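Purpose: get a first structural picture of the assembly so the mutagenesis plan has something to point at.
Setup: two entries, given in the order below. No constraints added.
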Amino acid sequence: MIESISIAPEQSKHEPPTGWRRYFGFSTDHKVIGIQYLVTSFAFFLIGGLLSMVMRAELITPESDLLDRSLYNSMFTMHGTIMIFLWIFPSLVGLANYLVPLMIGARDMAFPRLNAVAFWLVPVFGILLMASFFLPGGTAQAGWWSYPPVSTQNPTGNLITGEAVWILAIAISGVSSIMGAVNFVTTIVRMRAPGMTYFRMPAYVWAVLSAQLIQLAALPALTAGAVMLLFDVVAGTAFFDPERGGNPVLFQHFFWFYSHPAVYVMALPAFGIFSEILPVYARKPLFGYKVVAVSSLLISVVSVLVWVHHMYASGTPGWMRMLFMFSTMLVAVPTGVKVFAWVATVWRGKLRLDTPMLFCLGAIMMFVFAGITGVMLASVPVDIHVNNTYFVVGHFHYIVYGTITMAMFAALYHWFPKITGRMYYEGLGKLHFVLAFVGTNLCFLPMHLAGLHGMVRRVSSYDPEFAFSNVLASLGGFLLGMSTLPFILNMVGAWVQGKQAPDNPWRAIGLEWMVSSPPPVENFEELPIVISGPYGYGKSEPLVSNEAALKPH
Amino acid sequence: MNVKTISLLVVLVSLSLLASLWMGQQAYTWLPPQASAESKLVDDLFSFLVVLGSFIFLGITGTLLYTMLTQQVSRFDLSDGPPIEGSVTLEVVWTVIPVLLVFWIAGYSYQVYQQMAIRGPMDVVHMHMGTPSAYAAAADAEPIEEIDVLAKQWSWAFHYPEQNVTTSELHLPVDRRVRLSMTSEDVIHGFYIPAFRLKQDILPKRTIEFEFTPVREGKYRLDDSQFSGTYFAVMQADVLVESPEHYSQWLTTVAKGDRVPASNSAYTEYNTRQEKGIRPGWPTIKPAAPPLVNQG
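Result (C-alpha cells, whole complex):
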C-alpha cells in the first residue's frame, strides 16, 4: 500500500491535448481510457444489435426468405462475437478503468501506458473483425464457439478466410484482456489509499478483482486453443482434425475452460454494480458486506470448475456429467447469497426509484429468473433435452442483456454526473428503462418456450409450430433496438447541454464522490486517509479523515 | 413478530406454494408429447424444478416489488434507512438452505440420469456396465432393435443391418429398447428428437452407441442439434414410431425396394439456387450426395 506520496503536478514538455481531442489520442489517464472504452464498445453494441435485428427479421417467418443461409450464419457468429468481445468485455473494463482508481483512492492505474495499449488493441481487432465482411469468402460462419471441424472447413480454399481473421481477432482480444487483468490486479493490490484495507474496499472493487483474477487464470486456455485452431486453419496441422488423428472435442474443452468462467468475468462486475447502487438509493448499508465481497471470490474459484456443463451432449463420460452437474449447481450458493443480500439491503430502506435504481431492481429480477433456468440447465437430464435449443439462448440473454447490460445502463446513469459533470434527463432515463425491461422480456421469454418444444438454436429456418414464439421474440427484439434511442438522445443531449452536476448529486458515500465532477487529472489533491467501511448509510461516521484536503483549494 | 405478521406470512407462503405447484402442472404443457420412456422421467424432473424455481422467484420478486411499492419516499426526504449491516443468523440460513437444495436437486437429477441409463460413446458404455436402470430388465428380456445412423452434411441415413435396409426416415417399433450406432462422415452433428427428450452429439471417426425406448406411436421430428454449417437448419428427418406388426411389415416391404437417391432438402435447395442463378451468398461447402435408400 502506498502510504503517502505527494506527487507534484507533472509538467510535461508538450501539453497533452485537452477537450474532445484527448479522447482520440494515446492518453494514459485512466478516466480518458475508461471513456474511450465505453464509447468504442457502445458503437460496437449498436452494430451487434443491428445484426441481431437482421436475425430477428429473418426469424419472424419460419422459412429462410430474407437472407442467404451463409449470411444468416455469419449474422449469429458476428453478433455473438461482437457482443461478447467488443461490447460486454470492453464496456465493463472501461467502467472499471474509470472507477477503480477513484474508488480505492489512487491517482491512476498501476501501469498507465499498458492501460492505453490494452485499450488501443480494441479498435484494432474490432476493425479487423469488421473487415472480414469484405473477404470473398465472407466472415466466420461457425458460431462464436467456432467448433472444429465446421470452423476448419474452407470452401474457398483461400489462405485468408473469415475464420482465420476471426481467430486472430479473438487472440488479440485475449492479449488486450490479459494486459488489462495484470493492470487491475496490480492496481487493486498495490495502489489502495492509506487506510483502505481489503475489507474497506467497495464491493464493486472486490467484484472487479475477482473477475480479473479469472481472466489471468483461465484466458490462456482459450488463447492456446485459438492458436492451435489457427494452425489447423492456415498451416494444415491436425490438432482437431479427426480425419488425421486429431480430436475435435479437445477444442471444446479449451474453449469452455475459458468461456464459461468468462461469463463470470462479465457477471461479477454487474453484481458489483448492484452492490454499489442499491445502498445509495435505499439509504441503507449493503447487507452483509463482507459475505458479499468474499462470495465474489468464491464464485471465481467455482467458475473454473464447471466448464463441462456445456458439453453434456458432446460424448462426455457419465461420471464427468455428474461431477460437473454438482459443481455447476454449487455456483448457485454464493450467487444466492448475493441476491438475498441485495433484497435485504432494500428491505425497509428509504427508496428513491431513480433510473439507476430501476435498472438495478429490474436487472435483479431478471437475474433471479436466469439463475433458476441456469440451475435447470445444470441438471443433466433436463439439459440433454434443452441443450443447444432456444431455451439456452433465452437463458443466457437474460444474463447478458437482462442482467449485465441492464447493470451497465444502471452504472452509466449513476456515474454519468461524475464522468461528465452534467445531469442526465430523468424522464428519458425512465422511458429507456420501461422500453428495455419490456423489450428484454418480450424478446427472450418466448425463446424459452420455443426451446422447450425443441427449437434448435442457430437455425436459419424452422418448423411453423414455433412461429408464435418467434413473432413475439422478433417484436421484442425490435423494441429492444428502439429502446436504445432515448438512451443515446439522453447521453448526447445531457453531455452537450445538461444541467451542471454537483460533486455528489446522489448523496452517495465513496471516494469518487468527494472530488469534483468530472474529477481532475490526478483525481486527488492529497491521497485520502480512509478511516471507515464503504457503506456508512444511516450512520454519521466520516469515510476519510482528510476530506477537505482531497480537492484543490 | 406478532401473531398478525406470522399469520400473514403463513398465508403468503401458502399462496406462493399453491401458485408454484400450479406452475409445476403447467410445465408439462410447455413440452412436446412424451414419446419415449425417458421423456416421462425428464418431464417430472423439469416440473419439480419449475415448482421450486417458481417458489423462489415469487419469494424474491414479491419481496422486491412489495418494497418498491411501499418504501418509496419523496425526494425531499433526506433521512437514511436503519443502518442494518447484516445478520449472521440470516446469512447462515440463506447459505445452508441453498446448499441443501443443491444436494436435493443434484441427487434427484442423478437418480433420473441413472434410470435413463443414457449411453454415450462406446468407451463410456463399458464403464456403465451393471448400472441399475429402470429399463435394464425390459432390455434384457426383449431383443434390442439395432439401427445404424449415418450423419453427413446435410442428411440422415438409417441402416437396418439385419434386413440390409437403408432409409431416410427413422422407423421404430413402439415399446422396445432401441440401440443406435451413430457415426458422422464429416463434422460433428447432434442427434435430437425433442419428443424423446434425448440428444447426443455424433463425432466423426467414432461410433457412438445410444439407447432409448419409444413408448408412443406417432410421427416425430429428428433435428441436427450441433451446428454443422450452411444447411444445418434443414438437416431433419421424420421419426415414425409404429406398432411391432406395422414395423416388421414395413421392413419386409421396403427390403424389396430398389435403392434410389433419397430426396434431400439441402441438396435440392443448393442445386435449385445454382440452376436459377440466385446469388448464392458466400461460398459454401457443397451438400454431400443424398444417401441411397430403399424405395418404400
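The two ends of chain A are 26 Å apart (CA to CA).
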